[in-house]
C-alpha cells in the first residue's frame, strides 16, 4: 500500500496564464471536468478566461472581487446519481494580462468506495437502475489521469465496479 492511500486529502493548485500573442491559435486549458467533489476556485478579479458549458454553449464566468467560484466535480455527480452534474469548464488564452487562479479541493482516500448515495439511488425512478457504478476512487483517478480531456461517461464505465 502506498503512503497516504488510506486518508482523504486536501489539495491546492495554483495556475498562471500569461498573455498570449495569438490566443485564437492556442488552447488555454482544454475543456474538462474535475475528478473530485467540490472545488473552491479563487480566480483573478481582473482578467477573465474561465468558461463553463451550459446547455451546449460556453458561458463566460465574469471575475468578481472577493468572490469564490464553487465547481462540482465528478464525485458529486456519482454521489447524487446524476442529479448534480460535474461542470465542464475551460480557460481561454487571452492576449492581455496575466490571469491567475487558486483551486482548492478535498478528495476521498484512494481506497474509498464511491457510488450513488442510498438516498440518491432510492430517488431514481422506480424500475430504473443506478446511473453510476460503485468503484474505488483510486481506480477512477488512474483512468482520469489518461482521459481528463475526454468525455466523462466512459471514465465512469472504465473503472472497476465493486
Give an account of the 3D structure.
- The protein is α+β, with helices and mostly antiparallel strands and 162 residues long.
- The chain has one domain (9-158): B-lactam Antibiotic, Isopenicillin N Synthase, Chain (Jelly Rolls), CATH 2.60.120.
- The protein is built from 4 helices and 10 strands; from the N terminus they run E-E-E-E-E-E-H-E-E-E-H-E-H-H.
- The chain has helices at 74-79, 118-123, 137-147, 152-158, and strands spanning 9-17, 29-32, 38-43, 50-54, 57-60, 69-72, 89-91, 99-107, 113-114, 135-136.
- The strands form 3 sheets. It has a 4-stranded antiparallel sheet with strand order 1-8-3-6. Strands 2-7-4-5 form a 4-stranded antiparallel sheet, with no helix packed on it.
- Strand 4 and strand 5 form a beta hairpin.
- Helix 3 (137-147) crosses helix 4.
- The longest helix is centred in the C-terminal third of the chain and has 11 residues, at 137-147.
- The two termini are 19 Å apart.
- The model has no long low-confidence stretch (mean pLDDT 88).
Helices and strands in order:
Elements: E1 9-17, E2 29-32, E3 38-43, E4 50-54, E5 57-60, E6 69-72, H1 74-79, E7 89-91, E8 99-107, E9 113-114, H2 118-123, E10 135-136, H3 137-147, H4 152-158
Antiparallel strand pairs: 1-8, 2-7, 3-6, 3-8, 4-5, 4-7, 9-10
Helix pairs in contact: 3-4
Number of helices: 4
Rg value: 17 Å
Specify the helix fraction band: 10-25%
State the CATH architecture.
Sandwich
User: What composes the largest sheet?
Assistant: 4 strands, antiparallel
Category by helix and strand content: alpha+beta
Give the overall shape, derived from the CA principal axes: globular
Instruction: Name the strands of the widest sheet in spatial order.
Output: 1-8-3-6
Unreliable spans are none
Portion in beta strands: 25-35%
CATH superfamily name? B-lactam Antibiotic, Isopenicillin N Synthase, Chain
**Average pLDDT over all residues:** 88
- CATH fold node name: Jelly Rolls
Which CATH class? Mainly Beta
The rounded distance between the terminal residues' Cα atoms is 19 Å
Succession of helices and strands: EEEEEEHEEEHEHH
Please give the number of β-strands. 10
Q: What number of domains? A: 1
Organism: Brassica carinata
GO molecular function, one term: metal ion binding
Keywords: Iron, Metal-binding
InterPro entries: IPNS-like_FE2OG_OXY, IPNS-like_sf, Oxoglu/Fe-dep_dioxygenase_dom, Plant_2OG-oxidoreductases
